[in-house]
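Below: protein 1.
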Amino acid sequence: MTSEVYMPGPVCLIENVKGQLIANQEALEILSTINQPVVVVAIVGLYRTGKSYLMNKLAGKKTGFSLGSTVQSHTKGIWMWCVPHPQKPGHTLVLLDTEGLGDVEKGDNQNDCWIFALAILLSSTFVYNSIGTINQQAMNQLHYVTELTDRIRTRSSPDQDGVEDSDEFVSFFPDFVWALRDFSLELKVNGEPISPDEYLENSLRLIHGTAQKDKEKELNFPRLCIQKFFPKKKCFVFERPVNGRQLGHLASLQDQDLDSAFIEQVADFCSYVFSCSKVKMLSGGIKVNGPRLKSLVITYVNTISSGGLPCMENAVLSLSQTENAAAVQKAIALYDQRMSQKLQLPTETLQELLDLHRASEKEAIKIFMENSFKDINQVFLTQLEIKLETKRAELIKKNVQASSDRCSALLQDVFSPLEEDVKQGIYSKPGGYRLFILKLQEMKKKYSEEPGKGVQAEEVLQKFLQSKEGLSEAILQTDQTLTEKEKEIEVEHVKAEAAKAVAKIREEMQQKNEQLLEEKEKSHEESMKQLTEKMEKEQAQTREMQQKNEQKKGHERSMKQLTEKMEKSQAQMREMQQKNEQVLQQKEKSLEESMKQLTVMMEKSQAQMRKMQQTNEQLLRQKKHQEKLLTEKLEKAQAQMMEEQDKAYKDKLK
């Protein structure tokens, strides 16, 4: 069997033949070959709403699930396509495309209700596909969810039958995705943009404040069911991909022919499903693979066909019985394999065999624990213990027989020279008895030194010697060298040795019985030890899952409170923003006026500066002119003085 299956296209998993649901054997055989954990995505919705197109995209193909291009519903029953998971190695993505709900050709909606219920029961992600917005009409069309408690039982005792008792349903139910096709509205509330998820949460809020309480309860019932049954919810909106008649031929159109926003929305949808869809799980944290999904399909469909209500507990118990029986066989097969590899008969001691048995038994119990679940009252574990105990008893018996055969053959070989001597009359003479006893002791020593005799070595030897007692006594009585008294003493000695040997054999048998009893107790202790470890592990997983669920609920409450707080905060922020804008406008006006006045002042200052600069330049020019005139006068005066001094000096010389 392969763990990964290749399906070129979808096959019908559950046929709808004239309103009768029948599991398809071909599809069941395909599931039986998938040993990997499965992520099961089912899509449900009104007929002719484009469900198959989305499923083909999840399969990574343009065609596969039938799309159709008329007003007639194409998909009948539930179709399955198993493909390798694109983001989770070692997992298989199982896509379930259901026939359209509300097909007028079917007459009544009983069949639709069962299709809806089966999609819930089998999937780990449930996609509800509808056209347009989430309004009261869309809620009314989703009336199937309000009938789930009338069509599904979580336990065999029918005491959980209301929305208020939905906690058990939640643990079994898949994640919910609402796909809104041909969505044309703007996602806004009070002028502010919102996400598709926020749009879904707003749409699921309960209606209050109407005068008609009964009508209000009726309107709120589907909302309440969705909120209770599906804690994890997601919403995607898809614009119309094309206009006109082309809408019926999506499979033949290329991406460039489709609206770009629609292509992006489909890609987001696929990305979410691939990354966030979980493995299908059973209660107790049991991962579902192909054979387990097959068992669930058979159990649910047979129950519906017989007029009963699908019961999750019964389905799991039925599955557990099948798998636990197979786990017992798998454990026994492993035990046989290990013992055939390690055990060489005969063993020298019983303990050697018991040690090998215990080691192989431990592995067998471990493999049973790994492959079994919900073994109520340890019925199958007890079966395994009985089978292993029987196997041990059979091996002990075979070991005894192998040892006996080996010892008998060895005795025949070792003592044959002695018997030949007896035939030739070597010991039928005076002193022959002592020679016979010496030879007998020599043969016994040789026998005892031979290896590989096993657990029956002493017992087989004593039986052999007992068979030779008549011969020994005959040789004793014919030995004329011995007196009658000596012969009597020898006879008593032989009897004492024989009694001693018998006592030794009985003691060994008692030890063997004690060993077997001790081994039985150890085997049971090993079973109980591994069972306790498994139960503790399962309890830890259950507590962890409960904690996660509580955290999840707490997270949802926190997110709701946070959302309300954020909405309030956003309103306050918008109010503050408006006030800030008003203040800012006032400041801008004031700043403009200030800048205007400052500009005027600067312009006046600049004019004054220019005027002062011009005045300074004139004064500077005047100063330079005066300095020039003064310099010229000084130079002229200095020249006159030099001239007068020179004249005076000349006059003096004369």
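Below: protein 2.
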Amino acid sequence: MAHELADDLFTQLNMGVRGLQYFMETCCPDTCVPVDLKHMALNHVKAHPDSAATIVVDGMACLRYWYRCRAWVHGGQWQEYMHILQEFIDAFTAAGIRLVFFFDGTVEEQKRAEWVKRRLRVNQDIARIFQHIKTYGQQPNSRDLFCIPSGLATFSMFALKSLGQETRCSVREGDYEISDYALSHNCLGILGQDTDFVIYNTVPYLSISKLNLNRMTTVLFSRERLCQVLKLHMTDLPLLSCLLGNDIVPEQQMQHLRNSALASYRKRNKQVQGDKVYAVAEFITVHHPRSEETFGVSSLLLAEAEEEALEKGIRTYLLPGQTSPWLKCSRPFPESVRSMDKYVPGEILQAAMEKHTRAECFLIYNVLYDGVVECSNSLEDEDEVELPPQAVLYLPVRERIYGLLLPVLPDCSGHTVSVKEWFVFPGNPLKEPTRVTPKPLNYTKESPDLMALWFRTDPEVKTVQASTLLDVFDLFEFTEELKQFDSPLIAVICLVTYIAIQARQLSLEDIDAYLSQAVCVRFKSFTEMQQLRTPVVDPRAVQLGSLFVRGLTYLIGANSACGFPFPMDELMPWKTFDGLLFHSKYLQAHSGCPKEELLEGKPSWMSLFLSIRELVLGACRRRGTPVHSRPRRLQYRDVRPVEVDDLCGERRPQLHHTTQQESRQQPAASTHYQQGYRPRPRHPKRGRYQLAPSLWSKAKF
């Protein structure tokens, strides 16, 4: 079932050349070759005895294949996810195959329009997910409604490193770096789900969606066979991609050419499935440069803007040393401009790039090199009027991180440096980036010396690094108090305190849910986590879970900027958070269950919980944001039964909203995001949920 689900999801999300995946699978199945990875590895080692059989893995394309946990809406089942990753690695190791993982480290501006289009489409899916939760009180059990947990790509990168795998983060287009690395290192293949890997003249492209981990088999999409079928040369494939449409050349830009080619093709051939691809291939063959007078895309007799678009698109596929008959000059694609060079010492830039490419840091490379940062979709309810989007909530943290890395004062000419943010959240149309100005820390009198934070190794610098990180979260006062706790608990205390102060609408029950979860998760085994169930899914708890996990990404970003005062692995969600566990604690806390029950009757757990709880609540009181008890109760009525929780497979009555109104104080959004963030007013019929106390007598965790 898991493989079928993954297959269906990948069918919807195929990346790369428009229509090519369908064409190869449906119209030319001979181009899709079933392969046994063990046999491939053995043959590779025989042919190349001095090198290991290595597969380069496109990590971004594998996220949905890897995240097979049944619960996904609650914030992530991180221990289970780590177990899945280990099984994946073990299967390849047993087959004699070494893996090298690549993750996208940047979004190139030439692909920005496509990135925006996809992010806005996912926003619509997320809105449907929340509507489903509000209607049925359950996680969607549909192949059309699925969203990976927030931050999964970032955390997967660090997870694989912690499991001993070679992991890399790209500094330019990820597909390009993967293809280049695989070719230059004589790798066995590329494992991913992007037809661009058919176009690149590199090693074989293997499908992650067709991977059977038990049998170690998959499908190889053969560019050689595709060329035979279409009667093209390998060097023609980049032009084919651009004429069909890809992430660089929009599909509609070459629509007129495809229509003309298709009309011409159908005059001589009967209409068949996939004839658009056949027609474009024939067009390429007919117009292939054959003389010195006609060369490059000029032989296609297109408008100047179209020629430029095609040349730009073709050039992106050329690996070092490769040429194309469709280009007047096969020069390499220009490197990205380093716009922040003049503000940062060369040693810092070099260290940032090295740590970035080795997947050892987060966020700082993007800030220091081109000053552009992006954040993809989070599970956020567009109708939520109390909790601000994560982009707004964590803006002060990002401003202070930028202030650590870049100048906070104008230069001699009066110019103030800023970082361009492309952050996805409900209400942001993503028409242009938001410019965010670096801000100084609140408590540190002088801006910390970045060279000292990054390169000093004496014991005293650790204290400075840690206090600087706390100052980034405006929690400098915790510097001494937190020394008694380990890194995972410090991470939780920081984030929960920060969320409570910034959002200003967290209740005592929310705090108890966050903190009891953080204590309990430390002592639960992977087997115990697998037994967790919740009787209902609450939309507010979903957003709170997502808000915490997204906060962990900013915490590791701050840790990177401050010189790593804490081990990165200690700040990861598998050490601090479990979605189902948090959800169950949230429902328990808001049902009024005793603290002893929240901490599962363990005195030592209760003692730890009470100590960190007092720290958090004390900090909130000192900041003028005391936290009060405001239980949110859930109520059921006997109506048409529905499948409420696909995790349990039980049938429960349908959830409905009460009509009780409550005025809500709206947290003030920073002026940077006021244009984008417009919380919707509460519908007059939309009230709070209420949970009948008798429900909890039946609930099992």
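Residues 1-14, 635-670, 678-701 have pLDDT under 50 and may be disordered.
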